[in-house]
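Researcher: We're teaching a course module on how sequence relates to structure. For the next exercise, students receive a sequence and then see the predicted structure as tokens, so they can try to spot secondary structure elements on their own. Here is the exercise chain.
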Amino acid sequence: MCRLFGFRSVIQSQVHRSLIGADNALANQSSSHPDGWGVAYYVSDSPHLIRSAQAAFEDNLFSRVSGVVSSETVMAHIRRATNGNINPLNTHPFQYGRWVFAHNGNIKNFPQHRNRLLSAVAPRLRRFILGETDSEVFFYLILSKLSARVDLSRKGCPVQDLAEAARAAVAEVVSLAGEVHAKDDGPSGETYLTFLLTDGEAMLAHQGGKNLYYSTYKNRCGERDTCPSFSFECENATKTGYINHLIFSSEPLSGENVWIPLKFGEMIGVDWGMKMTHF
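Model: And here is the predicted structure for the students to work with:
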């Protein structure tokens, strides 16, 4: 299906290598995921979103964007369509206010369940659904669950609330479409709910059947002698829960990062203070 990338750091960093430079960077993976791409990054707490219906490896704009993006929070997605036509409105990531979301997966028999899922979306949010995909409806379903817990426009969303809202949205989908399929290589028409969600500070990832990996440290950081934020956690697993960077990727990217697979059904979140929690 699709490929995801998410990045959260204590300092502004470029992600050109992950998107373009690595042997298996997103641009290279897009040859088999050719139905559009999107990159979201945050500047002064505001998300900037660029999307295209072209394949990333054919689109010069993808290279240009990837080369200039420097941010504490970045999300990228390359699409292989399952629901919805190939156009910018159906391309991930999706945005509402501070919130940005990307999904790798599918809701089984989505046309059959679409109206009931839409009815579960808060009316004040429903009108912002512009595309045809199950992913966008799922995003607004999560936001609806979250809006019952927090003000969506305020900074500092507790990652616990974010995880609980996401669990509630997953349960709603399962109640209609059946259980999430646990194997990455299962039939394409089954339900898979692997996703990334952020407001620029908190970031949450869910392994919903499609593979997802995370990294919080490197074997050796090439900037260890010059980076003002270098710490023990940059080259070792955290002992306190606090980290300096967190990367999510649909597959391990080449380089010095140490990658760990999320387990099926597992969520990992990081809050505004870069404290990581497993759910």
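Model: If you want an answer key for the exercise: Confidence is low (pLDDT under 50) at residues 20-24. The two ends are 25 Å apart (CA to CA).
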